[in-house]
Structure formats: structure tokens, C-alpha cells
Amino acid sequence: MAKKNRIPHKFLPWIDVRKKFNLSHAHVQMARELGLNPKRFSSYANCKEQPWKLPLPQYIEALYEKSFGKNLPDNVLSIEQMAAHHLAKRKAKKAAKAALEAGRDESKISEESSNDPI
């Protein structure tokens, strides 16, 4: 049985926003880089009641171009790919920490054995 990929909780609101407002992966990545709050997207996208507002995708593109001076991010990743990179990074960090702890334990044991009088 295949193991289902787990997505960390910090990425779930972005997946919901992408589906609800029909945004592309690039738009979601631009919004994340801009630091927009996914919970406030309904107020950003209220262009039917407030016609002076831009539609949400154009609003994100305009903010991104104003802030970064380019139309799109250099490397566009989906939220699922970002989550996979995040989990791989955490796993590598945990493995490195375990290796460091194992090295400390070995050095501690070797120091104790060298200090024992025979």
C-alpha cells in the first residue's frame, strides 16, 4: 500500500486559497513571497461589490512587479512541491542532529574508557 504524502499545516491554507479563488501555482507563490495572509484573500478579491479593485490574480501580479521588479518568480513550484522540499529538509536536519548526537555519545564513551585506571 502506498504511503500518502503528508502536507504540513502551514501549507494547507494556501491550497484552499488556490482552489477557492482559482489561482495558478505562480500566483500562490507570488502571494507567499509578498507575505500576503491567505485568510484575508476574500477581502482582496471583493471586486464585485467594490469595482475599483483589481481582480485577485492581477492584484497579486501588480504587487509582485512593484515589489520585486519582475513579472514572475524565477522558479515556480506548486505548494505540494514546496511541502515535499520542506519535509525533506526537516528529515535531513533530523538525521544530521541524530548523527551529531551519536558522535557525541561515542566520544563520551571513549573518554570514559580512557580515563579508567587499569
Automatic annotation (TrEMBL):
<protein>
    <submittedName>
        <fullName>Uncharacterized protein</fullName>
    </submittedName>
</protein>
<feature type="region of interest" description="Disordered">
    <location>
        <begin position="93"/>
        <end position="118"/>
    </location>
</feature>
<feature type="compositionally biased region" description="Basic and acidic residues">
    <location>
        <begin position="102"/>
        <end position="111"/>
    </location>
</feature>
